[in-house]
Amino acid sequence: MKKILSAVLFALFVLLPSCGGAGSDADSVAKKIEEKKTLDQKDYTVMIDYAADAFDAVSKALEETKGNPAEMKKKAEELEKKYTHLELFMDNMPDEKDLDDANKKKLEDLTMQVIKMTMSSQMPVSADVPDAPQPEAPADSL
User: Fold this and answer.
1) Cβ-contact 83, 21 below 8 angstroms
2) Is 25 exposed, middle or buried, given 0-12, 13-18 or 19+ CB atoms closer than 10 A?
3) What is the enclosing helix (H) or strand (E) of 14?
4) Which residue stretches of the chain have pLDDT < 70?
5) Per residue in 11-50, pLDDT tens?
6) Using CA atoms, how far apart are residues 79 and 130, in angstroms rounded to an integer?
7) Angle at Cα 130 formed by Cα 126 and Cα 132, nearest 5°?
């Protein structure tokens, strides 16, 4: 499940390259991660809720800025400032087997939301976002 969520949420990083958040709970969990302290279920809840909030904000921003790349870039910059811990949280998201039932459900729900959004073509590809990093072609394909 973690691999699926990470792969699907990669698209979010096109819009939010250094995402994360500024709430005191999120700050506290980020500090624990950086200090290599053990995380508990409450910490995982904060991480999952934070990622869900970021996803909702991106989804809303995409809807509001459809067809306007300049406005999309502006919204992405705003969200990047708001969600400063997202990348850290996604890189440290636990495996499903380490989550309690409530957090498993939250993570599954988030994963399904992200999949539905990407399947509905709401998520832009990096070529659609101004100044987004473009993937490099493999050397053997040149």
Assistant:
1) yes
2) middle
3) helix 2-15
4) 1-23, 121-142
5) 454 444 434 444 589 999 999 999 999 999 999 999 999 9
6) 15
7) 45
Measure the CA–CA gap between 16 and 29, rounded to whole angstroms: 19
pTM for the whole structure: 0.69
- Residues contacting residue 17 through CB under 8 Å, at least 6 positions apart: 80, 87, 133
- Unique residue bearing structure tokens 């809807």: 63
Residue given tokens 């624990």 in the structure block = 32
Largest CA distance in the chain: 48
Identity of the residue numbered 27: D
Write out the two tokens for 141.
Answer: 């394909």
